[in-house]
Design brief:
By secondary structure, this protein is of the alpha/beta class. The protein is about 35% helix and about 20% strand. The chain is built from 28 helices and 34 strands. The strands form four sheets. Strands 17, 18, 19, 20, 21, 22, 23, 24 and 25 form a nine-stranded mixed sheet that branches. It has a nine-stranded parallel sheet with strand order 31-30-29-28-27-26-34-33-32. Its EC number is 4.2.1.118.
């Protein structure tokens, strides 16, 4: 009979109530209660017992009882109190860990005497004591040492607790020594995996334990040897891990149960997962922007669009043994130009068996709508939401022929591997999923250097090496220096001629810098190196063979392709520096694209802070990068007491973080705001504000002059220009219609009176339209005054009050084309090529979709509106 499966409450996050519910939902029949969880709970031990009974959970053990044996005076009064708690909980075993106290005496006879006394008292209550050797114990660190003490104590209520972590991480004796321990003297067994890290056992054990199958320990062998002793008690998980202690306890409990079921399967020699025969297909979710880009590179590589799904907007692209599905259904993210890997399918010798196994291992089964004549495809969700299908060959019949025959270039022979990026929280979940559900064998985790911090990568393959999946994460991504490509994914195609593939990719090929090849000079013959340099081919070799590979440009926001040529028995995925080289090359390509948009009517876009004022400056930069802006405008001074204030000029940490984000994304600061100088204002009060703008690389300063005295405001404006000029800043005067500088005519008088070379005028389309200024006046002004424009639309009806005007300006602007402003007419009156700063605050829309999505919608709508007619080119 298989052992009962338990989980310690120490494995899960949340309150005790949360942990019990999660354990029960995941299918556990029993638990260990960690003392801290009970202490923090408002439930009494009797209430905990009743709640567990209601959930179908037994309480098998209570832990830990620390620093008892070998102490100068054993605290039996404290022990009796613990026994009271066990009785109220209905738990049968108290787990006693070897003493850590510096006061403990190194005397095994004394330890045995103390444990014997404890066992006598436990037996009187019908309880048992399980003694555990901790790898960091003061004197007892190994299970054989603990067994020697238990034997000396010689009491039937005293036995061992064996913990795989302490036994495998602490060097406390070979597992072969278990043959000397009778199974009936093993009272409890705890399981935990762990990575191989150069770290003391104490730190490893309190921060980095993993569920079975996620780490490097041979837990199959451990459980096998424990069961050979005759042990028939439960197997309990005790996994203390910083990630799991912050994760949803329900997901962690599911992972815990999945890991135990997979371990139980391997330890008992049950049938393995059905054999896999390769990647059946990989599915990409695309839209009207990213779809043609992906199709173009597939076509360049010799793929043909051979099929169209009977009932779904999905295309089948084929070449050799590689199959890609392009799913044109609306993406849930709504991110225009986005492409993502939404599903991968494996060919299984027994698709139904694979699906049953996945369901038994608690993988969420995904519903799928299909017509009666379509294949019955079973799929489950991986931890990151990717759909995983188990297929035979019948699914191909769901695609109607397009009439386009497969091409015979022979460039691509199949799918070599699929690479996914997981969050640091999901990385171990994903490793366990592919190991347990698909029966794949993960390699050890490898650390790779990269421009933005270390990358952890772990590859998994099926036993026949027909399915390869690599998982990547950035484990220390806690700061702000990071690429703007979130969770990149790629598909690697196999080929027998990587150079022909590189040539076929043409402009889609990712160019690799010459320094990379200079570094290879000593390893390769000059003709080979010259050909690799010409075609941007990367190289690696191991004892089995060689690996030549190329990458594509980024397609959409996160997808790219790799083409690989393996020779001999090469089993890896490229040299350790290839990821860093690729990331740097992709970043250069993205930044170049950000600065170059073909076409005669090219305009750069800036994200004005008022459009997404709830975002901090680093968040605004990130939103701009994701949506395709080149610039941001940063609001350094608040206009109203109610609005969020981001004090860049006086907060060094915020300034540093913002500068790092700017450097990482390539976004630039176009302008800063707002120098609002009224009757009592002093331009020198804005000197630190101006210096902060210069530090950020800003080019322009927005000012307003709500002052009825013309001479005074003109003089102060001139002084502000004089302060800004040495910092390389222009001062651009904005004229809201409700201020004392309310229109184009008054602003023009100020600029002419000031006579400053760095003076400028900011045309905000809303303010211009509401001020009654004329386009004829605008066209007549000096072109050098205009450095950028604030673009928006607004309702056609003009509010009758000042309060209404202000409310519209701050909360109810519209995307161009949605209101009554003559957007094209005003922009046509301005110089060609100036940046368009989108200042489109819309409080209701931001509340509905969020500030980042609002920023993306703003640039998408503006581009769409302006593309329908010629504008200021």
């Amino acid at each position: 009979m298989a052992p009962r499966l338990l989980i310690s409450t120490a494995c899960l996050s949340g309150t005790l109530e949360d942990k019990l519910a999660a354990a029960a939902a995941a299918g556990f029949g029993g638990i260990e209660i960690f003392e801290d969880d009970l202490v923090m709970s408002t439930w009494s031990p009797r209430r905990v017992r009743q709640e567990c009974e209601d959930l179908g959970l037994s309480i098998e053990a209570y832990q830990p009882f620390r620093d008892f044996e070998s102490m100068p005076e054993p605290d039996l009064r404290r022990a009796e109190r613990k026994f009271d708690v066990l009785e109220q909980l209905g738990a049968g075993t108290l787990l006693v860990c070897s003493t850590e106290s510096a006061l403990a005496v190194d005397d095994d006879d004394l330890a045995a005497e103390h444990l014997h006394s404890l066992a006598v008292r436990a037996q009187l209550r019908g309880l048992r004591v399980a003694y555990e050797a901790q790898a960091w114990g003061r004197h007892v660190t190994g299970y054989l040492h603990a067994w020697n003490i238990v034997r000396r104590a010689a009491h039937p209520a005293l036995g061992l607790c064996l913990d795989s972590f302490h036994m495998l991480a602490g060097g406390g004796g070979a597992l072969s020594g278990l043959r000397a321990v009778p199974g009936e003297k093993i009272f409890h067994v705890q399981l935990a995996d762990a990575p191989r890290l150069a770290m003391a056992p104490l730190q490893l054990g309190r921060h980095h334990r993993l569920f079975p199958g996620q780490g490097a320990f041979d837990l199959t062998g451990f459980v096998g040897q424990v069961l050979e002793t005759g042990y028939r008690g439960p197997l309990s998980l005790e996994v203390v891990n910083d990630v799991y202690r912050q994760s949803d306890p329900r997901q962690a409990a599911v992972d815990a149960m999945r890991s135990l079921l997979a371990l139980q399967e391997s330890a008992h020699g049950l049938p393995p997962a059905p054999r896999l025969a390769g990647h059946a297909f990989t599915e990409l979710a695309v839209d009207d922007v990213s779809g043609p880009a992906v199709a173009a590179i597939l076509g360049a590589l010799g793929f043909a669009r051979t099929g169209r799904h009977r009932s779904k907007p999905v295309e089948l692209w084929e070449q050799g043994g590689a199959r890609i599905l392009l799913n044109h259904a609306a993406q849930r993210s709504g991110h225009a130009g986005g492409a993502s890997l939404c599903a991968l399918a494996v060919e299984s010798a027994d698709p139904e068996g694979s699906a049953r196994r996945a369901e038994r291992l608690l993988a969420p089964v995904l519903p799928r709508a299909r017509r009666p004549e379509e294949a019955e495809l079973r799929s489950v969700a991986a931890p990151d939401g990717t759909a995983v299908f188990f297929c035979g060959r019948d699914w191909l019949g769901d695609f109607l022929p397009t009439g386009e025959p497969p091409r015979d270039e022979g460039l691509i022979t199949g799918t070599d591997h699929v690479a996914l990026t997981e969050s640091v929280d999901d990385f171990d979940h994903a490793v366990l999923f592919y190991r347990a559900v698909l029966g794949m064998r993960p390699d050890q985790t490898t650390e790779l250097p990269a421009p933005f911090g270390l990358i952890h990568t772990r590859a998994a393959t099926d036993p026949d090496h027909t399915v390869r999946i690599t998982l990547n994460t950035a484990p220390l991504r806690r700061g702000d220096w990071a690429p703007t490509v979130h969770s990149p994914q790629h598909i690697a195609f196999s080929t027998t001629d990587v150079f022909a593939c590189a040539k076929a990719m043409g402009p889609h090929l990712l160019k690799i810098p010459g320094n990379y090849y200079d570094d290879l000079d000593a390893r390769l013959a000059p003709p080979m190196l010259a050909t690799m340099r010409e075609h941007s081919v990367l190289y690696d070799r191991d004892a089995g063979g060689e690996y030549l590979h190329v990458y594509s440009e980024l397609l959409g926001s996160r997808i790219f392709f790799e083409v690989v040529q393996r020779t001999g028995g090469y089993t890896g995925y490229g040299a350790s520096n290839s990821t860093a080289v690729r990331m740097a090359a992709h970043r250069r390509r993205r930044l170049a694209a950000l600065r170059h948009t073909p076409g005669p009517s090219r305009h750069d876009y800036s994200l004005a802070h008022l459009t997404a004022l709830s975002l901090s400056p680093p968040e605004l930069v990130e939103a701009a990068a994701e949506a395709g802006y080149r610039y941001v405008g940063l609001r350094l001074t608040p206009v109203t007491p109610q609005e969020p204030h981001h004090p860049l000029a006086t907060d060094p940490a915020l300034m540093r973080t913002t500068k790092v984000r700017l450097a990482a994304t390539g976004i630039e600061v176009l302008d800063i705001e707002l120098a609002r100088i009224g009757p009592d204002g002093n331009p020198r009060d804005y000197l630190r504000f101006l210096e902060a703008g210069a530090e950020l690389g800003a080019r322009h300063v927005i000012t307003q002059l709500p002052d009825p005295d013309f001479a005074r405001k003109a003089e102060r404006y001139a002084r502000l220009c004089e302060l800004a000029r040495p910092l390389g800043l222009t001062v651009d005067l904005e004229f809201p219609s409700w201020t004392e500088t309310p229109d184009l005519a008054e602003a023009t008088r100020v600029l002419r009176a000031a006579g400053q070379p760095n003076a400028g005028m900011l045309i905000d389309l809303l303010h211009f339209a509401r001020s009654g200024s004329s386009l004829e006046e605008l066209r007549a002004l000096p072109r050098e005054w205009f450095h950028f424009a604030h673009v928006c639309d607004a309702p056609a009806s003009v509010p009758a009050t000042q309060e209404g005007l202000i409310h519209t300006a701050r909360f109810e602007r519209l995307f161009p084309g949605e209101g009554g402003i003559d957007v094209r007419g005003i922009l046509d009156a301005l110089p060609g090529g100036i940046p368009y700063a989108l200042e489109i605050p819309h409080a209701l829309l931001v509340a509905q979709v969020g500030a980042k999505e609002h920023a993306r919608l703003a640039i998408s709508a503006t581009r769409g509106h302006l593309a329908t007619g010629r504008t200021c080119s």
